[in-house]
Amino acid sequence: MSSSSELVFPASAENPKCSKWRFTWEAQSHTSTLRLILFSPNIKPCTEITVNLSVEKSLLTVCFVEGDSVRVPVPRVLIDPEAPVHCRVFDDHVEVKLALLLPVDHPLISGLDLSEPEPEEEKPVSDTFFPFSVNYEIKKLSAMEEVHFYCRSCSTKLTKGIRLFNEMPSVDWQDVADNWFGTCCCSFGGISEQLVMQFAKSYSCTTGVCLITGASVIICKEDLVGCEFPELKGDQTYDSQVNSAKVTSLRPCPEEENYGVKPNNEVVEMMIDGDSSTCIPSKLKDEDKMKSLAGTSSKANCDTKNHNTGCCTNNLSERFSKEKEHEMNTELLDKQKIFLKGCLGDAFMLRHSNLSKDVKWIEFLCPKCSSLIGAYPCSSDKAPLDDGVRLYKFNISTCLPVRGLNDLFREYTLERMFSRQLLEAAQDELTFRTVVRDIHTKRALSQIVLLNPNAWCYSGYCMHNMAPVTKINMYPIVKLLFSANINYTELEPRNVEEWVTKNQADEVFMLPSQVKELITNLEMTNTMLPPSHMLLQGFSMSSSKR
């Protein structure tokens, strides 16, 4: 079965000559021009051509002086029938420009139904508002009586029935606590440290509860079917080495009928601290406990002022911090100490703040077809560190059939999720350059430069003369430049680091298999452009759906 983000271009097999001609329709947001790029590899177009546009049939025909012609379907947009058609012939392609009554992204266009009527049961639900918000997904999933997640590749049932859905906490606990209570030991700094310790102690996934992030759902390992996990070592210690480059996967249980899952699968239980009974940080609801914490802080304040009439001195503050750190370390389990820095994330486009040299990410494969469906954090024992496994939305479905009308995740693909994260980084970090690194080795795998975040496109192959006109819709894209290092032969590490420093580029860390799939899609899109449009300043030109 094809990958979730694989690009498929329509082709004409009946007429090989027509199928050699490729077309790409392009439009920019807020502009009323539709551009067609038409070319055939290794064929130089003649200079004398005639263009005929039939708005009623949504068809554009390009006739060459030799008598040959190619037919190009026109996307469902509002074309100005009275405006002239502009055509130019270049060395390796033909360019045609049409005038639009309204830009493709105009609000009035989104409210119009330019398609032919379809039966209500067959009419697809619009994905105009993709991506859906986490709150929207939680609302929809919670409204279902029970939700099972399925592998998108082979339809295997992956989980038991889930009834509770919450948003994954995504804040840096230490920073939030410090900003709220302050960091000085003579104020409420003691409460800040106690809160962070409570967060770390309570952070664990719980059976029957699903946590939702922007790119994944986090399922407790006991809610997964057909998989066994290594047992977490109680006296686990961590070294200071960087993450291993070796990627391993889970071993599925012996396959049986009915999706190849053992009906009564037994999962090895992970030992958790007694206070860890919820998958989100527990709140301090007891007012007396809050007062007790405040009393601890006040006592520290009094002790400090007995030695100094002003605020605490550096020596006393340092001693206080060391005592608190020792107290926290003795009370926390080894695995919980990692959570003091905050959430681990979901291994999709992680930032430096989510990385730890004590944590490795293991690729989680479908127990039936062995396709990648998620990942989970672990230490050296390869057991889920927080009892949770991240299942990527673009690799799973919420119901059967997969990617059906009732599948909440049907519109998610790897490339669309990647584009979404790039755009968010461009808005938040004000950077349009990104280096994608291997989450294991930290080696740079690709350089990305955003060119236009608000473009629309449709690519395909020209039709033969007898074929019916295909109805096509333009889709939103992000135009970008990229360079790839999939085979570790193209990117020079020194040059990449200089490029990152000079351009203040953003850095993200991904699973290498996902990066390879992304680059494959970008390279395929690049082939739909004429040679003169393939390269720019040493980078390859391409686009990604958003």
Automatic annotation (TrEMBL):
InterPro entries: UBQ-conj_enz_E2-bd_prot. One of its GO terms (biological process) is protein polyubiquitination. One of its GO terms (molecular function) is ubiquitin protein ligase activity. One of its GO terms (cellular component) is cytosol. It holds the Pfam family HECT_2. This is Ubiquitin-conjugating enzyme E2C-binding protein. It comes from Solanum pinnatisectum (tansyleaf nightshade).
